[in-house]
Amino acid sequence: MSIKIAKFGGSSLATAEQFKKVAAIVKADPNIRYVVPSAPGKAPEFSKKVTDMLYACADAYNTPKCDEIFDEIEERYYAIINGLGLNLDFAPHLETVRKNIKAGYGEHYAASRGEYLNGIILAAYLGFDFIDPADCIAFDENGVLDEALTHAQTKAILVASEYGVVPGFYGSNAKGEIRTFSRGGSDITGAIVARAAAADVYENWTDVSGCLMADPRIVDDPKPISYVTYSELRELAYMGASVLHDEAIFPVRIAGIPINIRNTNDPSHPGTMIIKNLPAKAYERPVTGIAGRKGFTSIQMERSKMNNEVGFARRALQVLEEENISLEHMPTGIDTLSVIVANSQIEGKLPRVLKKLQLACQPDSMEVSHDMALIATVGHGMSRRVGISAALFTALANAGVNVRMIDQGSSELNIIVGVANEDFEVALRAIYAKLVAEGQA
Ligand code: ASP
Prior knowledge:
It is a single chain. The chain has helices at residues 16-27, 50-59, 64-84, 91-102, 107-126, 147-159, 186-196, 230-238, 249-255, 312-322, 343-346, 350-361, 388-398, 424-437, and strands at residues 4-8, 32-37, 129-130, 138-139, 164-165, 170-173, 178-180, 201-206, 227-229, 259-263, 272-275, 289-302, 336-342, 365-378, 405-408, 414-420. The protein is α/β, with parallel strands linked by helices. α3 (64-84) packs parallel to α5 (107-126) and α7 (186-196) packs parallel to α9. The chain is globular. 45% of the residues are buried. The site of aspartic acid has 13 residues, from α7.
């Protein structure tokens, strides 16, 4: 018998109707041993996520507004309980949460209660044990996950329970205070539980049938991705494709557990498998996905005979390090070196950085451009394959897009191009049309 973990996102658990779909999925598969719920999210009849309302409650904890918002939250939960016809004594839980938020327990505590309360309802509805992640998911004093301790404690706690519900999004620190992950963090809880249970698969149920090869807001009707590797997904997610919380990949990647993105509203769709190595067949397709982001700054320095100079790049990088700026790319020529950083990293620091670079590197000239977008074309299938970059750059040339920067990772997993912000959409569509829709690579 294989072991599966099923994490359900907020839209999958927003109403009693959605709860029923979740229960049908879980009950149909006895291999689903542990279920990780999010807090109730948005639904056609509800415009707010419970988590957002809880943050607002924490903000207004010492004002009448707090009670007002909490009344609304209570209604959401009672609508679910009544809609399920569940006989559950829920009032004491709500009372405690309301009292503690009003006593100023803070935003981590408040936000975590969305998952906590939903977990109590789901456990009762499924007839599963309720497992409180405050007892196993451990954060250090800086609010960072203590991976080793978390793994050991979660493993131990799961052994005692054959079928359980572990609410997502939070844990606790050594002082017993509740700590949450960043937004969307229930994905991380699911991955932690999957690793601790030595699961065969981590099912991540949401409201889309897996990942798409490009952003549907830019490309019309992009193709779905059946298989993607952890590293391809990292590249795509980093460049803006959002499917899973960034950090959710690490715990399962260590253990080689595949993640299967599924749709609660279309459970027969196989969704996307996120795995370590692509099946042989998947290599037939060179490109797995295309993603990009706007908002990068490039600083180009020129100095004649830079090629003979030892330490130029180190001095440039040291300036960035001193200013706590993370570097995205560093294309070089014989006498030129550019650093490309996200605008958000350099905001408010640019004049100082330029001054320091001038002093440290003494370039003959420096040029700054602010409006760069980066587009990553990602796919293991591109490696050792002739003609991909030719097709990609032909597509950009035919679309009249000027390429400002080119970077290819050494593993040939990606080709990244820098274009003007205003060319971003046209460029992305052109690459998709050529490499995916026409398959001309
Ligand atoms: N409920 C939290 C949020 O809205 C965590 C999650 O859903 O994963 O961010």
